[in-house]
Amino acid sequence: MEATPWILSLDPWQYWLVLAVTILVLDLLLFGGLMSGGGGVTLILAGGALGAIIPAAFGADMTGQILGGIAGMIVMGVFVFWVGRRWVRGDDRNLSGQDVRAGREILQVEDRDGRLGVTLLGDFYPARPESENAVLHNGERVRLVRFEGITAIVTPEPQDRA
Domains along the chain? Predict the structure, then answer.
């Protein structure tokens, strides 16, 4: 069976569908799937192909199909941006949950090359007190509150705990 007559017998919307599915399959095989290919670029391209299906299904010319593709890319770009922000920073109501050890981990302040910090899971992080008027001292026991970038925000551990 020769493929050429089959390919030429497709409607324009079917070409766009084949293109969208091909982009998504290649994204899955080459980059690992959703949001992986350059931060969602392949997903946006597939959205453009899917957006071109609608005008093509209603018989629009190539200009209409291209405009539909552009609209599909814009819609998918907004979706990728929205999903990406949720995955990276999490839900606004739960920013304290950025690290499961925050609030539970008791660490000891260390001085490394003149910089005070804490060691967590074998890695040294510069530390800063949560309160502006607090001062950290070498050897002091502190509780990890959260991370701001690579800086551990800590609060002094009460002395009455053993």
Answer: 3-89 (no CATH), 97-156 (2.40.50.140)
